[in-house]
Amino acid sequence: MFYYVEGTVAFVEQSLCVIDCAGVGYACHTSQNTISQVKVGKPARLYTYLYVREDIFDLYGFADQEELSCFKMLIGVSGVGPKAALAILSVAPPSRLALSIITGEEKLLTQAPGIGKKIAQRIVLELRDKMSKEQLEGAKNGGSAALELPAQGGASVNHTQEAIAALMVLGYAQSEALAALEGLDLSEYPDAESIIRVCLKRLAMG
Fold first, then answer.
1. How many domains in the chain?
2. Which site from 119, 146, 185, 190 is most exposed, i.e. has the minimal number of CB atoms within 10 Å?
3. Which residues form the signal peptide (predicted)?
4. Are residues 117 and 199 in the same domain?
């Protein structure tokens, strides 16, 4: 229904940002990651998700499409609702969350209030499994060969492979991830997360 809302930030509190669009205030539930990027009185654009249930009609908004993508992935996991998803995104921005899923690092997710070890493990397992199936399907349809993900608790692949896989978790095609890496001097980036961040900037620039 809404792709994004754009206007002036009218009000901000712990998990809510109100955007004034031509005199109409849109109250968007959001993460601390997004809250840290907006300021009252300044223009902002939030990419939105309308969460509708029998007695619920809530709007969620995020500073970028990667965080919105992560939010939608998280609420697609059994037992994870919008409140839990926001809690996770508040401690793990998109680059860190995607990397945690790839490497099986559920400990990071348990730093979010209300997220215990069992639900953190479920998130990692379900999203890793979903990604693996999508990669396999892409390969069958003539796409690039699927990346081999590290086994849970096993040895990690190198930082570049982790970064590519993490970008795919965020919704990018493998070809887009590879294009974002083109021309980068990877020796300048000490870990996968720093590679992911620079790739996201390049992808945002088109």
1. 2
2. 185
3. none
4. yes
Indicate if 119 and 176 belong to the same structural domain.
yes
Alpha helices in 92-158 (DSSP H): 94-103, 106-109, 117-140
If you average pLDDT over residues 94-102, what whole number do you get?
88
- Residue 9 inside a domain? The answer is yes
* CATH at residue 49: 2.40.50.140
**Mean of all residue pLDDT scores within the chain:** 85
**Residues 101, 124 contacting (CB under 8 angstroms):** yes
Q: 194 in a domain, yes or no?
A: yes
Instruction: Please spell the DSSP secondary structure of 57-111, one letter per residue.
Output: EEEEEESSHHHHHHHHHHHTSTT--HHHHHHHHHHS-HHHHHHHHHHT-HHHHTT
CA dihedral 179, 185, 186, 189 (to 10 degrees): -120
Amino acid at position 44, single letter: A
* 31 part of a folded domain: yes
Instruction: Provide the residue range defining the domain that includes 45.
Output: 1-63
Q: What are phi and psi of 79, to 5 degrees?
A: 90, 0
pLDDT band at 173 (very low <50, low <70, confident <90, very high): confident
| pLDDT tens-place string over residues 123-160 | 998 888 776 655 545 444 444 444 444 444 432 347 88
Is 8 in a helix, a strand, or coil? strand
| Cβ–Cβ under 8 Å, residues 82 and 58 | yes
> Does the pLDDT of residue 195 top 50, yes or no?
yes
